[in-house]
Amino acid sequence: MTSTLQTTPAPDRLDLLADPVAAAVRDWAVPGVPAGELLVAEIDPDMADTAEFCARYGMSLDTSANCVVVAGKRGGEIRYAACVVLATTRADVNGLVRRRLEARKASFAPMSDAVSATGMEYGGITPLGLPPEWPVLVDPAVVGTQQVVIGSGLRRSKLLVPGKALAGLPNAEVTEGLGVPVSTD
């Protein structure tokens, strides 16, 4: 599959990134991954959802990652985490993530909460630029991907980053078993 994406170094096109993502790129300090290796591509915002994006731009699902915001509740307290898994898997929200958040119940955060807490558009939420108190759980398969497509904080663009860069993000925790294969039943 040949990609039709036109990329440019993300530091050169901060206008294609949500404000907190642009700040994270400006302040980039992941060892061994220069900011110039972070690429951004402008896309049709109607094609931002993973399956449509991959089909339209010639990308593979196994090199695309989703970042989901999970809310864990316990005793009236809500704790958030971001989970980054390959598009061919789903995050183990009710098992591994719930236990990591020490919550009685965990679920995907409501859209309005995720958007207001991150400063990003729904469908474009990315692990770069998240609130500093949130753990960022990253599946090892994402880290092992040479270049992975993730959101940019906006629906009108995507970031392409070395998978290993996500392991170096602040509060990143490479979490074995986070990504569970999607059932084809």
UniProtKB/TrEMBL annotation:
Residues 45-166 form the YbaK/aminoacyl-tRNA synthetase-associated domain. It comes from the Bacteria. It holds the Pfam family tRNA_edit. One of its GO terms (molecular function) is aminoacyl-tRNA deacylase activity. InterPro entries: YbaK/aa-tRNA-synt-asso_dom_sf (IPR036754), YbaK/aa-tRNA-synth-assoc-dom (IPR007214). Coiled coil: none annotated. This is YbaK/aminoacyl-tRNA synthetase-associated domain-containing protein.
